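Notes on consecutive records. When two proteins share a document, each keeps its own sequence and its own token line. Never mix them. Below: protein one.
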Amino acid sequence: MKVALVHDWLVSQRGGENVLAAICELFPTADLFTLVYKPGSVSKNISNHKIYTSALQKIPSATRAYRHFLPLMPKLIESFDLSAYDLVISSSHCVAKGVIKKKGAFHFSYVHAPMRYMWDRFDEYFGHGKYSPPVRLAARLLRPYLQKWDKKSATRVDAFASNSEFIAAKVKQYYGRDSQVIYPFCDFEAFQRPREVGDAYVIVTALVPYKRVDLAVETFNLSGKKLIIVGDGPELQRLKELAKSNIQFLAPLSREDLAGLYSKGKALVFPGIEDFGIVPLESMAAGMPVIAYGVGGALETVTEKTGLFFTEPTVKSLTKAINQFESKVFDEEECRKRALLFSKKKFQTEIWTALEKNCPSKIWSSLGSAGIAPESF
């Protein structure tokens, strides 16, 4: 049996790619399809697979400006020839779930989010001041087409899994489909360091609009407290211009350096609405508590013993939460115990079990050496 893995794009190693890497371990001989691939940007668990890319790969700027080609992505993802594959597993937050399988094949889609650019996050990406007026107008004109395609392509999926209850509700809302919740994970052991708490708060994220790093910058500008922001993205320059001298920006760090930063941070600040959010798990694995906006996936990971929430996306609300945090004491061992509940082994076992349950027996029974059960690791 031949297995195809599908992921939207491979240009960095973030949460979605960590999930993909864990799936790649289960199917080491699978072929991997993605719209565009930047060599050296992802882990060997991913890059060791045979990778097929779309026509977008031929455009020199594609690995940097791939988001600009969003209107073309439905046709590009549909262009992949999957006629040789019996089992298709997509890891989707944009268009990956829209691939076209052969008749009789089985498609299992793990959804990080429905096409967030065109649904509930539209204004955060294309609202006033985000892009030039012509780009915003084009986005509004294309939105109905992309929403229609997103709904229609969902009918090609045989079984869905979602990365949180928050996203499962959106899969139900937009696609009318049920999905099993299978939580992502963090590499717990990688973040074990003695805690030597300093005086700086920490943000680790991609610098894109919906992450709401601008809200944190405005809040720390007023308070004068130290904030370290780790990440890059299209918002970087704007945020640097907005920030005062008490706010430091760092490029993405290696896992070892990130663990060191977590060991010294006062708390992770998590200001956006996240589909799930692996960074809070990393923070808690390191014993560092979390201050999060109380909407979305953070509600499924952070507890009153491991952090606290602010209730409105405003400077006033975040400031209040930070002040509350500074009057409380959090047990680093409680943070670590919470993170331990979200393990890679558990994730892989639940993915394997979901496939075994939903995949037709004639396909699953012929899996053979194409797959490796988690118990073998």
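Protein two starts on the next line and is unrelated to protein one.
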Amino acid sequence: MKLFEGIFNKYKTNDLNIVAIGGGTGLSTMLRGIKKYTENITAIVTVADNGGGSGALRDDLGMLPPGDIRNCILALAHTEPIMQKLLNYRFEDGILSGQSFGNLFLAAMDGISPSFEEAVRRMSDVLKVTGRVLPVTLHDVHIQALLENGEIVTGEYDVSHSVNAISGKIKKINLIPNDAEPLPDCITALHNADIIILGPGSLYTSIIPNLIVGGISEAIKESSAKVIYVCNLMTQPGETNNMTAFEHIEAICRHAGGDIIDYCIANKAQIPQKLYKKYQNDGAEYVRIDSAQFKQANIKLIEDNFINIYSDYVRHNYEKLAQSIVNIQMKC
């Protein structure tokens, strides 16, 4: 027991170096659990969003989209509850309707900083963030999806929301421009990592866009870190209709140019039928776990109940998820 406690305490310090890659609410949710185990966290975040409040600021101010960055900063911040509430506040009326105050905070910081990278660092300092939040690139990138029927859809919002209407499954994701360079600190973080986490988050609009920024996938392959994919709880209409957990991994590795996944964490629990019906009505379903495929590919599959149920939606249980991630390192 004392030996276990000693190992556990070690990984509550800076000894465990974790890099998490993604975007959206999934990544930020997971970070809330990870920060309880180590302060040595780097979140590498996509900057391809062009919808909602982030898209509006991107168009109006010519800045990189702040939304996913903001979510990760707040997840890793040590602030009073009222500050968290203020930064998450979303205006309901007027020309700011739908805009988040946290987005405006980062936009203002960008206005007084020499670069977006520096703006993110300064906001992180103000909010006493554990670890670092890094945009994957400082280039103004957009997502372009090639569908199996030959159609091309451009822009994160349209890829995420309009593919169903075109009735074409996503075959490949590209970035425009396709020569975007990664932030150097991202490459360094990947090389130094003990654990690299992909997801949870939208497969084609939050995770894969990071991997196709030049040099990111190569750095993951060169790293000695264990690479963990955290599978989504539900399929995402328009992006991953009917895709199994292993098919998610196949898409990641195809875009990364090789096999990069060592572990997959997947949920095997179910949610109340009434809530599940709501998801089904929206075109979503459970992500099926095709265990035989994982065994054949020599990818270790970790299944458990990772669900947190809220009134009308589900999220990962970030405490249990973080514990499972840290346990992987403890057992090696």
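For the record: The chain has 16 helices and twelve strands.
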